[in-house]
Amino acid sequence: MDIKVEELEKLKVHKEAVEKSSPLVAIREKELEINAQVLQAKKKAEELIQEARQKSAKLKEEAVKKGYEEGKTIFNREIERAKKEAESIKEQAKKEVEEIKKKSKENFEKAVEEVLKFILP
Question: What is the pLDDT of residues 9-36, one digit of tens each?
Fold first, then answer.
């Protein structure tokens, strides 16, 4: 009876060896290995995409902030320029008003003299 048990053990070991060396087993092992690599690549790709999104959001935020600051600087510069221009216009208007007042005073006096000459010959 010991011989049969021994033969059964030999057959079992031989069967396992044949199964392990079978092309189907090798293909299945390779398939599992490739699936693991694909999953790892997908995970890495997702991490890279997430990192790119974060960088993009940060760049956008920085660009908006920089644009706001530049716009604010330009706005303030233009406001100052407009104030100076308004002050210049105001000064010019004052000069024109003074000139008109002066001319009207001179003309008024001349007009009064002419009227008086006409009325009192």
Answer: 766 766 666 666 677 777 777 888 888 8
Please state whether the predicted TM-score (pTM) of the whole model is above 0.85.
Answer: no
CA angle 77, 81, 86 (to 5 degrees): 145
19 in Cβ contact with 13 (< 8 Å): no
State which residues form the domain around 23: 2-119
Overall domain count for the chain: 1
CA-closest candidate to residue 82, choices 71, 70, 90, 92: 90
Q: What is the DSSP secondary-structure string of 67-94?
A: HHHHHHHHHHHHHHHHHHHHHHHHHHHH
Q: How many helices (H) and strands (E) does the chain have?
A: 2, 0
